[in-house]
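tl;dr need the bound structure. longer version: we got a ligand (flavin-adenine dinucleotide) that a collaborator sent over and nobodys looked at where it sits. i said id run it. heres the input, straight from their email, havent touched it
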Amino acid sequence: MPDKYGDSPAAIVVGGGPAGLTAAIALAEGGIPTVLAGKRPTQPDNRTTALLAGSVTALETLGVWELCKGQAAPLKVMRIVDDTGRLWRAPEVKFESSEIDLEAFGYNIENRYLIEALERRAHTLSALRFVEDEVLSVVPDATAITIALKGGQSLRAPLAIGADGRRSLCRAAANIGIDERSCSQVALTVCLQHSRPHHETSTEFHTLTGPFTLVPLPGNRSSLVWVLDPVEADELAGIDNADLAGKIERASHSILGKIEVEPGRGLFPLQVATARRFADKHIALVGEAAHVIPPIGAQGLNLGLRDAATISELAVAAYRGGHDLGGAAVLTNYGRLRRTDVGGRTLVIDMLNRTLLSDFLPVQGARGLGLYLIDRIGPLRRAVMREGVAPATAQPRLMRGEAL
Ligand SMILES: Cc1cc2nc3c(=O)[nH]c(=O)nc-3n(C[C@H](O)[C@H](O)[C@H](O)COP(=O)(O)OP(=O)(O)OC[C@H]3O[C@@H](n4cnc5c(N)ncnc54)[C@H](O)[C@@H]3O)c2cc1C
């Protein structure tokens, strides 16, 4: 193993969210001396993440999944129900994982359990040092990155991974612009208990303001992501639990029976954003620092984990070969490998969301026809399912179950 880095890290990950933690674990597992510098989020995260099959395999390979799988529920069936009440409504589409020979499309888990498992695994790796602090500045030069922490410490490494979320300091330091658009929609998130079983089925009701999505959790519990217009979201966030439960029961057509709302609600303004480049100046962006998409079809963090797996794979290969971890070869390859996956998914999710909100009849008709064809044509439906779970163009080694 090359030792030219001495006591200093060879990679610094900025941001200890799920994408940053995964990247740090993968780099350290691959033998790269890594520092993860992250500050705790100011708000508790009550969201859940539907991790699709490739992401679960990657977490298994990194020794994380065994630490949290007891808190995850399998997703075996996914239903899309047109609940717009419009004249031209799409037929209900039902995807079953058994149709593509999978036990489950993936697993849904509360973010707090996922983060806890990632942190526990991170603390077991001797090549990984965890610094709980805020990064104040990120300064690239010709050969490396220098990072200043609020506590006064300074770190230097040839590669920095920017996993610092939507308002990324790393992205700004690399002088990378972003194309972004606010969607005038807000997602209200809450976890629920219910009297009827969910049968490991996630149901996405498409409404006039956006999707209302129920995703199974272990037992008779589910998470809800309810996309609303901002005023309505604010109103619902302020009402008491019993009133909110009643509204959820009505909006869900009582498919889960009597609803009880658990403590903790989140409000997330929807946005579509893609960085113009994913890497530059010894900095590679992963997760929401690189791309943000609306919560439809459970794609956001699954993309982020593929970013983390891809940059780690490239960096570990460079490290073992004695090459520059943050050099042009690694960064250019990273951008090339991630562009199609991120660009393609962002386009499809954004289009689905827009067609839902559109009042234009031909657009509604086209959407209905698309879903009708997916429902009726088996090979097309199976191709959509396979692509949704594991993209043909982006299967880094960790997603295939191969250690780095
Ligand atoms: C309602 C909703 C539901 C979703 N559901 C799903 C789903 O089912 N499946 C799915 O795949 N995706 C889903 N997503 C998307 C997913 O939540 C995000 O992709 C994911 O949280 C992004 O993780 P991240 O690590 O990139 O960023 P973040 O979680 O934002 O983490 C960034 C971290 O960086 C830290 N940080 C920031 N600046 C600094 C600094 N200067 N110094 C130190 N630390 C810093 C922050 O404190 C934070 O810990 C959903 C999103 C929403 C809004």
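gonna send this back to them w/ a short note. The longest strand covers residues 178-194.
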